[in-house]
Amino acid sequence: MKILVTGGAGYIGSHTCIKLLEEGHEIIIVDDLSNANIEVLERIRELSQKDFAFYQVNICDFEAMDKIFGKHDIDGVIHFAGFKAVGESVAKPLEYYSNNITGTLSLCKAMLKHDVRRMIFSSSATVYKVGNTMPVDEEAPLGCTNPYGWTKLMIEQILNDVVVANPDWSVVLLRYFNPVGAHESGRIGEDPSGIPNNLFPYISQTALGRLEKLYVFGNDYDTHDGTGVRDYIHVQDLAQGHIDAANYAIKHTGAVAINLGTGNGYSVLDMVKAFEEINQVKVPYVIDARRPGDVATVYANASRAKKLLGWEAKKNLRDMCQDSWNWQKSNPNGYNKV
């Protein structure tokens, strides 16, 4: 297949692009590089030993997207592009609604114009309502605690409506949990700008000495140690889930939501201790106030992914910790070499 990957230079997108190329697909990456480094493109080429087209474009730009679709005979889209920090979305809601929703509308218009009918959408476990029974399945009540989550849920609704109007479309809404880890080569991984929003880069940069200490946001949640519990999934497993979803979309029409998670919940302090023990490093931390929009516990029922996609997570906690640390040690300044 020839697949357009929006946000393909980002953390999850780059790992997915390598797997797509390894499996013989042709890719076109569209990324405005607002939260990604152009160096990752060379590393995708290096690891896959294959080339691809790249456009530095914001998907909100319909005219630019229209030209890209017109130039390539695209079979389907994997849609990662979007702002993604929960805390930032609370501080900058208008930017999140404008960018994430407008970008998706622009992308869908281009797809409709050029008769591209398959989309895999990067959704999130943040679409689930607080208070659901765990593990949470795809039929659980939906509702969000932050603007980032609402953009994901609103986009899900938009795509469901597009499918109602265009029954020959196939849309897979991948609700994934907390991506961690890196490519086993240590050549690509998570490289956030500024202070990390996600736990693992924060842990690894603290272990490396780039950051003085890890701030643990809240220790008064209703969990076994008071810190938030999440379902951490290796980015390589997540990337494979997108490949399996793309293969599913070839054979099916309609829209379906599918969780990608391990089904296991670990607290923040569980992860800190595991990282220290597995990698033989120290991670100094302090307890800080809760972050706006965070919830106590979220982990997945991933049985639908196994049933429909034949997918299940294969990487374990040791893989997550080792691969994250290998990436950070090998790239102390991320993709910036100095």
Question: Summarize this, please?
Answer:
The chain is an alpha/beta fold.
Please describe what this structure looks like.
- The chain has 338 residues and is an alpha/beta fold.
- The protein has a domain at 2-183 and 232-263 and 298-313: Rossmann fold, CATH 3.40.50.720.
- The protein has helices spanning 11-22, 39-48, 62-71, 86-91, 93-113, 147-165, 199-208, 235-251, 268-279, 303-309, 317-330; strands at 2-6, 26-30, 53-55, 76-79, 118-124, 170-176, 178-180, 214-217, 229-230, 232-234, 254-260, 266-267, 285-288, 297-298.
- The strands form 4 sheets. Strands 3-2-1-4-5-6-11 form a 7-stranded parallel β-sheet, sandwiched between helices. A 3-stranded mixed β-sheet has the order 12-9-14.
- Helix 6 links the parallel strand 5 (118-124) and strand 6 (170-176).
- The model has no long low-confidence stretch (mean pLDDT 96).
Record the SSE blueprint.
Blueprint: E1 2-6, H1 11-22, E2 26-30, H2 39-48, E3 53-55, H3 62-71, E4 76-79, H4 86-91, H5 93-113, E5 118-124, H6 147-165, E6 170-176, E7 178-180, H7 199-208, E8 214-217, E9 229-230, E10 232-234, H8 235-251, E11 254-260, E12 266-267, H9 268-279, E13 285-288, E14 297-298, H10 303-309, H11 317-330
Parallel strand pairs: 1-2, 1-4, 2-3, 4-5, 5-6, 6-11, 7-10, 8-13, 9-14
Antiparallel strand pairs: 9-12
Helix pairs in contact: 1-2, 1-8, 3-5, 5-6, 7-9, 7-11, 9-11
- State the helicity in percent bands: 40-55%
The ordered string of helix (H) and strand (E) elements is: EHEHEHEHHEHEEHEEEHEEHEEHH
CATH class of the domain at 2-183 and 232-263 and 298-313: Alpha Beta
Quaternary organisation: single chain
The largest sheet is: 7 strands, parallel
Taking all Cα atoms into account, the compactness measure Rg is 19 Å
Strand content: 15-25%
